[in-house]
Amino acid sequence: MTAFPSKINPKVFYQLICFVLMCNIVSAQKVPVKFELESQTIGTTNGTVPFWMRSNQFGSVPLSGLSQSFIGKAYKDFSPLPPKDSTDKKQKLLDWGFGFEGRGNLGKGTNFQLVEAYVKGRIGIFNLIVGRNKNVMGLNGDTTLSVGNFAVSGNAPGVPRVEISIPDYYAIPVLNKLFAIKGNILHGWLGKMNIQNPVNSEFYYQSTFFHQKSLYIRLGKPDWRFKMHGGFNHQAFWGSEKDIFGPSFRLSDFETFKYVMLGKAYEGNGYYTSKIGNQLGSLDIGAEYNFDKINVLIYRQNFYDVGALSKLANIADGLTGVTITNKNFSKTSGLFKWKKLLVEIFYSKDQAGYPWSKLTKSGDEDYYNNFYYKSGWSYMNKGLGNALITRREDIKAGQEIRNEYFVNNRVVAFHLGIEGSIKDWEVLTKLTYSNNYGTFGTSDYGHSLGEFVHLNKGGVFDKADQFSFYIEGMKSFRNGINGGFATSFDQGELLDDSFGLMLKLTKSF
C-alpha cells in the first residue's frame, strides 16, 4: 500500500481499521471465509498481451509471451440484511468483511500484483472500506461486459482509500419510497507523481491524493416497472500544492481540500486561475423498464474534464448503452441460453475542439491529458478511465504522436458484450470496433485555449481502425473445481496485432 504523506496522521487510518475489525465482535451471524486458488497458463504473440486480456482487469494482467500465473483470493462478505419485519434478533445491521487478491506471474520475468487488500464494515445502509478494492464509477448496465466508464473503469488497480458509501439504492421512506439514493465519498493515496509547475515549468515528484464523490438518484417506487436514474461523479488528483508553488500558494490544507471538493477555481500570486489539481467525471442519466421476462436499462454518461460540459460544448461526447437482462435465465433449459446482452457506443471525438465548436475558456478537453500531472489520468502506469483512450506505449509504431501520455483520445467505438451459457459452460464474450483519430494536437485543427489555437506544425495522426475480440468459457466440476479458457485477439491499425490463449483451473474452499 502507498506510504502515508507526512501531513496525514496514520493513526487515524489505523483507528478506522480497528473500528472495522471491532465490528466482528458485535456481529452475531458468522459468515465463512471463502478461499480460491487459480492457475493460469497463458500464451500471447507479437510480444503483446491482447487488449481485452489486459483492459479493465484491475491491474491483474499476465506477462506477454508464454507465462504461468497463480492467483490467490480470500474473502469474507457481509451477512444478508434482515427484512425490516424480521424478528430474528441474531441478525444485525452491524457487520464486517475483508478481501484479498494477489497475482504472481512467471515468464520472461516475474512480478507480483496486489489486486485487492481491504477491510470493510457496515452500519445499516452505510459501508466503510479501508484499503485497495476493485472500484469502478459511473452508470452502466454491467461493469464486466461494458467497454468501461469514463471516470474509473477498473482498468488500473484500485487506489488505496478510506471510503464511506451507500453502495446500493436506499428507498427513502417519505413519499412512499418514490426516491432512492446511493453515493460515496473517499480519500485516497496515489503515492508520488511527476508534476510540472505551470509557472516555471520545473518538475517535481510529490505525494498526491485522490478524491472521489458521487450521488445518484432513482425515481420510481421499488415495485414500479419504469424507473429513471440520474446523478454525477467527481474525481480529482491533488496535493503538495505548497511544496510546488511555495509561498505564492496561500491556501491551508483544509482550504485546498475544500476547493477540490467543491470544484472551485483558485487564483494566487504566480498561479493563474484554475481548478486545483486534475478534476474530471461524468453526468449520467438512465431509464429502465422491467418487463415480465426481461429488464431493459438505457444509459448515457456525459463527460467533463476541463469545463466544456458546463456550456454543453462537448455534449456530443459520451458513453451510450443499453443492457437487456434475461430474468428467466435460471428457469430455462437448452443448448444455448443468454443471460445478458449489452450494446454501447463510446464517442470522444468532439471535445469542443473544432473551429466551429462553442467557445470555452478551457479550449478542447484533451481527455485524460493534463499539463500539471505529466502521466495524466493514470495510476501505476495504467489509465484509470476508459481503456479505449490509448497510452503512448500501447500505440502501434509509425503513427504521428506528441509528448503526451495519452496519444489517442478522439475515439468512436461500437461495443457488444454477451453473457450466457452453452450446455454446461458459462460463456462471456466482448467485441469492440473503433475508429481512432489521435488528439486535437495531432489533427488538422490543433489544440485550443479560449480563442488561442496552437496550430499543428507537425504531421497528422492517420485515422486508425481497430477490432478487438474476447471470449471465455468456464465449467464447474466436482469439489469446488472449475476449469476453462479465454482467448483474445487484436487486428487493426492502432494496436499491434496479437493473439492470446489462456487456460484456467480454479479451486474454491
From TrEMBL:
<protein>
    <recommendedName>
        <fullName>Capsule assembly Wzi family protein</fullName>
    </recommendedName>
</protein>
<dbReference type="InterPro" id="IPR038636">
    <property type="entry name" value="Wzi_sf"/>
</dbReference>
